[in-house]
Write a structure and sequence with these properties.
single chain; alpha+beta; Nucleotidyltransferase, domain 5; Aminopeptidase; seven-stranded mixed sheet; 8 helices; about 25% helix
Length: about 350
């Protein structure tokens, strides 16, 4: 039985070949942010050097996450493609599971950024502590309380040295019923969603893209008079003074900001956050990105303006917290006749 073994969930590019349960070839090196450029070639080279025709593969094993948002998808997408093309089974392993120290009880860690770690505890195939995200201080406290455990992974970010582990043997060990993916084309990366209720999640604020529009339209439903899709697309692709930013969690748009820059002033058109993510700092991040943009303008921006419904007291409190002052009331400003509070922040 010929098995292809793949992992790109962290900085390493890892490709292995096993024949009848024995590793016969492997390639592994640091290829941070370049796995997508090299992995297919490394697979081909490894098959050729071991005299194995691609069509003779019987199975493929891949890590599925957690780990690097982009890295996870590289190995998994290639594995899915091979599984579909050759009609061979796909087996999926936790990216932490493949770093365990054989059958010994192992605390397995990966850098999750923002002073956090991807964390799990395995004893062979037995899961002692499920994959999760933990604060680094909590991880170090766990290690102190469990000195009997081996500690495995890329641990330089914690100033620790990893116990030896065999990634390829661990991947091969996942060639069993428990790891078999029943629908390979439907296999999805595991990004290990954080604890949203406790505010423990990583938010990325970036420029909005056309692919964000469906999610933005869902957010628009929270407004009494939402923008149409045509209006959003105009703001995003045609309006020369408009700037749109999306806030994402696990790749999903959970908030966005639309603002204009005209000469020495800026105006907030709208800012909205998905209901279950409100009061968790996402609005602060969107506004913070706007302020960074304004500070980087070649022509200084002197002030920011906005209108907010007189009835929207929560929004007014948010803006006042960010140094906006109510200047006047615009009577019957909105289509339904409601007044608007005109607010200004001086920069």
């Amino acid at each position: 039985m010929k098995t292809l073994l793949l992992d790109s969930s962290e900085k390493n590019l890892s490709v292995g070949i096993a024949v009848d349960g024995k590793i016969v070839g492997k390639t592994e090196y640091d290829a941070w942010q370049k796995q997508s450029e090299f992995m297919v070639k490394e697979i081909k080279d490894l098959l050729v050097s071991n005299g194995i025709e691609p069509t003779s593969l019987d199975a493929v094993v891949s890590s599925k996450g957690p780990g690097s948002y982009t890295g996870i998808r590289i190995a998994l997408t290639i594995a899915k493609t091979i599984s579909f093309a050759l009609q061979i089974p796909l087996y999926l392993a936790s990216s932490l599971e493949v770093l365990r120290c054989g059958n010994e009880r192992s605390v397995v860690l990966m850098n999750a950024r923002s002073k956090r770690s991807y964390f799990a505890v395995y004893e062979g195939k037995k899961v002692i502590e499920e994959d999760s995200i933990r604060e680094n201080a909590e991880v170090l406290a766990y290690l102190s309380a469990h000195p009997e455990c081996k500690v495995c992974g890329d641990l330089g970010y914690l100033g620790l040295e990893s116990a030896p582990f065999d990634r390829f043997s661990n991947l091969l060990d996942c060639l069993d019923e428990a790891h078999l993916c029943e629908e390979p084309l439907g296999a999805k990366p595991v990004y290990l969603k954080d604890d949203y209720d406790q505010g423990k999640f990583k938010t990325i604020v970036r420029k909005s893209m056309p692919s964000d529009v469906p999610a933005i339209m869902e957010l628009e439903k929270s407004f009494a008079h939402p923008y149409t899709e045509k209006q959003i697309l105009y703001e995003l692709t045609e309006n020369p003074v408009a700037h749109l930013y999306s806030a994402t969690v696990d790749g999903v748009v959970v908030g966005f900001l639309d603002f204009y820059i005209t000469f020495d002033s800026s105006s907030i058109v709208q800012i909205v956050v998905k209901e279950e993510f409100r009061n968790k700092g996402i609005g602060n991040m969107l506004l913070g990105q706007m302020l960074k943009d304004l500070a980087s303008q070649a022509d200084p921006v002197s002030f920011i303006t906005l209108e907010v419904r007189k009835s929207n007291e929560n929004a007014q409190r948010f803006y006042k917290k960010h140094k906006f002052e109510a200047v006047t009331v615009k009577k019957a400003y909105y289509e339904d006749g409601e007044d608007a509070i005109y607010m200004v922040r001086s920069l």
